[in-house]
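Need Enoyl-[acyl-carrier-protein] reductase, mitochondrial's 3D structure for a figure. Predict it.
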Amino acid sequence: MRRVFRSVPYVRGPLLSLRERDRWPAGALRLAHSCSALVYRQHGPHSDVVRMENMELPAVGHHCVRLKMLAAPVNPADINMVQGRYPILPPFPAIGGNEGLGEVVEVGSGITSLNLGEWVIPVDAGFGTWRTGAVCDVDDLIRVPKDISLLGAATIGVNPCTAYRMLHDFVHLHPGDSIIQNGANSAVGQAVIQISAAMGLRTINVIRDRPNRHNVVEELESLGADYVITEQALQGSEMEAIFKNVPKPKLGLNCVGGQNGGLLLSHLDNGATLVTYGGMAKKPLPLPAKALIFKNITLRGFWMTQWKRNNREDQTALQSMVDILSGLMRSGQLSAPPCVQVPFDTYRQALQATMESHQKKHVLLM
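Structure prediction for Enoyl-[acyl-carrier-protein] reductase, mitochondrial:
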């Protein structure tokens, strides 16, 4: 039997369950506004399960705000969530999108922390940003200053935050220290390069060999990369020449895995740490015994969503990080990743492009 869809959004996610509806004060569910949203009711290929639908929004409760969504990136994690291949899966029916920028257009009577017109981004994954409007609890939001670019604000909550945390939470780095990373031309990799440059760190950046390699090298060097090399160079004498000019890295950042990630281990300094935050190669990370035994390398993992959840009760650290990153954007030391701006009603273009090999992030503009 086909399930009837009740298009009512809820406080901490896209749709409101009966239990959650009972928690709202009397009259709070009076429907006041509507929005368009990209909804899916089952997991599968985005082309089969994602549809744009009109939804009604509840009236704004005492501790809630109403947002006009301005822009929302389409990230690989968003597609994985639609497919059912992500550790966090919202209940059906669900709205796609974990990252995005909204403008406050209405506030509840008990709200003093946000004002009309301010920009905000969601704290947690599963918010459902692929829609034109939302009503949510004020605690689900973090303020973003309006004096940075719209694309910068819309993309600040995941990749730059991931880069920032990895550069600060695992190794105490000093100006002049070096780090090494693979996947350097990814959005996280580009943020790592720029934040490292602002910290006075030297970066060794590994990319795949490709026909346009020289263009990629120039782009990364323009962001502040000190060295850009291919995976093949990790196995050659080029590394010896690099280490005549910079110290061996105390920190390695791995988003590829497989042999590529394993090669990073051999170039880390004694006592260094390798942080894995992705596995694009879909192959296990080989662990040379000598790196663990004789160099005492520490292996760690990082997931930005879990860090946010661990710090949810006191959002001071998250707000402080967003403020610092916004300051770097304001000063020109951190830029938004290259983006393709896609009108919301042509969303299929953005979803399909994210499935394919590309260098630019696609952002839905509402």
